[in-house]
Amino acid sequence: MVTEGSEGRAGRAGSRPDSSARAAGGRRRRIASPHLVSGAGTGPLRGRPDRGSSRLVTPRFNAATEQATNALYRAQALTFRASERLATGQRINRGADGPADLISVVNLDKQLAVLEAETRSLERADAVVSTADAALAEVSGLTAEAHALAIASANTGALSDAERAANQIELDSIAQSIDRVAQTTSFNGRRLFSGEVTARTGSTAADASLTIDRVTLSRLGDTTFADGDHGFSSLATGRALAVDGDRPGDAATVASNASEQVATLRGSLGAFQRNAIHSTLRSKQEQIVQTASARSLIGDTDFAKATAERNRGETLYRAAAFATLAGQTNQGRALQLLSG
């Protein structure tokens, strides 16, 4: 049985949730003020619809924080580029570093490679000619000695037969030595006096070249250098340097001609070495210096500038990182205040 008093108490108890809801709703409406709701005011925060008539506030786009983050990325990129240039020593490491400069660097590198290859070729030609000249210098000394022995042996009245025979043995040995030098002088596995070795100052037909003459010496025939244009022509039909026959003076003539022809060949080699090889080599070396200088000016790192850029990038990075952290901290504090 329900009494009137109990009904009154039940009615009052049932009315309490309504009053609590009204109170809670009042509090939510007070938080969602016009300055914090989307579309109301120009404040940095905007609202988002909730289940009820009130709105939940969230941070709006923070331009200052975004700018600090972008500055952080830019400073990091600047530091990376400067560090890369310091590490590689090259200012142009990719096409994006300078398309026109990259093309110039590639062309100059190609030109440098060609010049260096030509320089090495000239140095090799210079070594070939020097080797041939050294061998001919030895031959020249042998022919001079042969000429002296031949003249001495021509004086039949002053020398005995035994002395002339001894001179002949020595002359035969000289002839063998000349032949041995001609047969064994080689460079990089190629015989220099075979008539097939040509020294060049370049790879085109317009470049200077010189073919080293073929040298042969035989005790039973003529001694010739190159196609018969240079060399000793034996005036006797036996040994070229025979002094024990009827015409001992012929050996002196052969030795004299041989000495002159060796000197002529050495002069030809020397002129080619000095005027063609050495002059071209100096020119190529100067071109290498100038081309390398231009290439360095365009493509190499300016270490002072790169170091300054790296230091600047590191300073900017620290400043941007501090600004970003400060923005995020302030944003977190604002959210704490709004939620509290």
Strand content: 5-15%
> Strand order across the biggest sheet?
1-2
Secondary-structure element sequence?
HEEHHHEEEEEEHH
> Cα-atom Rg, whole angstroms?
50 Å
Counting structural domains, the number is: 2
CATH superfamily of the largest domain: f41 fragment of flagellin, N-terminal domain
Going by CATH, the architecture of the largest domain would be Up-down Bundle
* CATH fold category name of the largest domain: f41 fragment of flagellin, N-terminal domain
Characterise this structure.
Helices cover 65% and strands 7% of the residues. The chain has 6 helices and 8 strands; from the N terminus they run H-E-E-H-H-H-E-E-E-E-E-E-H-H. The strands form 4 sheets. It has a two-stranded antiparallel sheet with strand order 1-2. Strands 3-4 form a two-stranded antiparallel ribbon. The chain has a two-stranded antiparallel ribbon with strand order 5-6. Helix 2 packs antiparallel against helix 6 (303-339), helix 3 (99-154) runs antiparallel to helix 4 (161-184) and helix 3 runs antiparallel to helix 5 (249-299). The radius of gyration is 50 Å and the shape is rod-shaped. The model is unreliable at 1-58 and 217-238 (pLDDT under 50).
